[in-house]
Amino acid sequence: GQAVDTFQVYELTSGTVGAWGNPTTTGETNNNFTNPTNAYSSNDSVAVANAQEDKQDYGDFGLSVTAGATILGIQIQVEADSDTGSQTLGVELSWDNGTTWTTQKTVGITNIANRYVVLGRADSTWGRTWSASEFADTAFRVRLHYVTETGTLREINIDHVQARVVYEVTG
User: Fold this and answer.
1) 92-142 confidence digits (pLDDT tens)
2) Closest Cα to residue 68, out of 133, 126, 127, 12?
3) pTM for the predicted model, two decimal places
4) Phi, psi of 36 (to 5 degrees)
5) Which 3-state string (H, E, C) describes 61-76?
6) How far, CA to CA in Å, does 45 sit from each of 12, 31, 70, 141, 167?
7) pLDDT band at residue 85, thresholds of 50, 70 and 90?
């Protein structure tokens, strides 16, 4: 199968690309966005980050990874835009319900409406080795972070956030 990254398409030679999961909880460790539950689905109702350093976490994605699988990559897809100009959105992942986070990946968000961006690749584990159990709803979280603000007050509008796992089962 193929997994799409923001800039390139990667052909998988082996492995399973899991379905995109949607969050059903938010605000367990960070709760700075306005209307954060609006990012649960793509419906043109948005969660809003309106100040630099605003953070919001999302969880309970319902991801299904076979026990004992080797994790090949994790992808986070965000449907977002900026009210004006270009802003930077950071994404971090947690495997222990928000106690510890991966190194942040960032992407520029512009004022192009309903733009989808994907952070992470089919072969990117975000700098760590994962186990299948770390994608359980009680453990896995995604944190969005409004990193930079150019000019006067700007907003990043998040319409939808999703996660999926690429993994391989051997034996």
Assistant:
1) 999 999 999 999 999 988 887 778 999 999 899 999 999 999 999 999 999
2) 133
3) 0.89
4) -60, -30
5) CCCCCCCCCEEEEEEE
6) 34, 18, 36, 22, 32
7) confident
Q: Which residue has the tokens 């006067």?
A: 152
* C-beta separation of 78 from 55 below 8 A: no
DSSP per residue, 79-128: EEEESSS-EEEEEEEESSTTSS-PPPEEEEE-S-TTEEEEES-TT--TTS
Residue indicated by tokens 């960032």: 106
| Band of pLDDT at residue 2, cut at 50, 70 and 90 | very low
What is the identity of the amino acid at 164?
R
C-alpha to C-alpha distance for 95 and 132, rounded to whole angstroms: 10
